[in-house]
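Quick one:
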Amino acid sequence: MGKVTLHLDRQTEDRMKAAAKAAGISPSQWVAALIREKTAIEWPPSMARLVGAWEKDCREVEEIRRGARADAPREPL
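Output:
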């Protein structure tokens, strides 16, 4: 298992310790979880469960465009 030394200012250290305590884990576990989260190469399960969840609430692009007004004229390039 690798070891890393972090140099944190007092305020950041206090915030890290408070967040770890609130999560019920050690500061080391909290930092490791944060690194895993920020370097993940796959969507977390919570995001994967959202796929298609709002399908019936979404309108097709053609339906959205039907109610749109004409676009403003563009300036020449």
